[in-house]
Amino acid sequence: MGDIPEEFKCVFPTWDYIYDLCREVSQQVKRDSFEPDVVVALARGGWFAGRCACDFLGLDDLTSLKMEHYVGTAERGDEATVRYPMPEGSVAGKNVLVIDDIAETGKSIDRAREYVLDREPEAVRTALLQLLPECDFEPDYVGEELENWSWNVYPWNFVEDMLELVTGVMERADQEAFTIADLRHYLYRHHGVERISMEIAQPNRMGEIMVELERQSLVEPVDEGTWRLAD
User: Fold this and answer.
1) Which of 6, 139, 177, 224 sits at 20 to 30 Å (Cα–Cα) from 45?
2) Which residues contact 79 (CB under 8 A, 6 or more apart)?
């Protein structure tokens, strides 16, 4: 699976919590008397934030940039690049708000800001819903500054992240087969995932995760309610 570290704390923001952060960012924009003509949401994490910002700010012009970190074929690197270029003239002469969900290093949103600036806008401002303490980039607007590093499992990528988390703890555990109770134990042990916090944000979804893991041939059933990693 992916590049998730072996030990880190996971948190599960709810839809309502994230929506409030979108509102906070939009209120900061209004207090700053900045009037964007277009919102550029960074794919994929910034899409929800971008749509909500448009609603709060009374805008109907929303576009997207897909940023990737590659130095070669399927090899992740430090430099952010634009995968899908914006149409010529799409932001020329406009006030632009570039928005994303969270930044650890800030390289993606910084590169996106530079990319938009190269397309002759009137002005560019940046916004993040959440800012991790290690981030070197200073956005113009921030919904929340986090005091400690954590892996934020947002509602829009819950399944994707959980597939990596579950297979990760299965690979590290010293046992062959796992029940959902076993997996909850290891998720708490390795990543501080408390059942109550996960159930508040994403109720009754562990069964769904196991079905998806089976569908993608990442795990296989041993007995009813018990799985192992697929060969």
Assistant:
1) 6
2) 69, 71, 107, 111
